């Protein structure tokens, strides 16, 4: 009996000293707390994860640099020049037509060139009919010094006055070119011509409002009393294209 009582007392003391639980040694949180480690029951963050990132300076936008242009190495050879004509704005029969002449070199990277009727010819044709040329009217070609390059276009403008035909004397009373399709060709001396087709359109008819002049005696005036020309109907087509002159020979496209 004494031995059994002593054994029971030892079991009771063992449970009291062990915290009253047989499964306490299996608790991982308890073991981590004893070892000084944080419990796994909650989220754990490393000290470096809580630091805020340092602000970075915005990168400067990339800037495009203008390519360097070739430097002229002397005067251009006329045969190395190509000229492409084009019509600026509307081409209306009986009115000034403006042409732009785009100039480039073929071989030389850059050179200087004088635009003039001695170095550049512009001609307007309609089928086999020669309509107008700077060889007849050299004053129409502007005189201008250009830096001409292979990769960059230089340009000048010239005017075909009132779409009139030309002759050897560039007679100012020559007939007008009629509405239709034409070709303009430009070429430097010794170079290959560049030909472009364009159309001359009819001028829009002018709208005239007829008014009646008051009669000093209280009656009504005659129609057309206040209109120039004694009330004659306006004829914009005849005035603009010179219907009484010789035909221009204008043809349809590709004619």
Task: Kindly describe this structure.
By secondary structure, the protein is α+β, with helices and mostly antiparallel strands. The chain is 11% helix and 28% strand. It contains 3 helices and 11 strands, in the order ααβββββββββββα. It has helices at 2-17, 28-34, 236-241, and strands at residues 81-88, 97-105, 110-115, 120-126, 129-133, 144-149, 154-160, 180-188, 194-200, 212-214, 220-223. Strands 5-4-8-9 form a 4-stranded antiparallel sheet, with no helix packed on it. Strands 1-2-7 form a 3-stranded antiparallel sheet, with no helix packed on it. A two-stranded antiparallel ribbon has the order 3-6. The protein is elongated and about 80 Å long.
Question: What's the layout of helices and strands?
Answer:
Layout: H1 2-17, H2 28-34, E1 81-88, E2 97-105, E3 110-115, E4 120-126, E5 129-133, E6 144-149, E7 154-160, E8 180-188, E9 194-200, E10 212-214, E11 220-223, H3 236-241
Antiparallel strand pairs: 1-2, 2-7, 3-6, 4-5, 4-8, 8-9, 10-11
Major sheet summary line: 4 strands, antiparallel
Shape: elongated
Strand arrangement, major sheet: 5-4-8-9
CATH topology type of the domain at 78-200: Immunoglobulin-like
User: Architecture of the domain at 78-200 in CATH?
Assistant: Sandwich
Keywords summarizing the entry:
255 residues, four-stranded antiparallel sheet, 28% strand, alpha+beta, three-stranded antiparallel sheet, elongated, Immunoglobulin-like
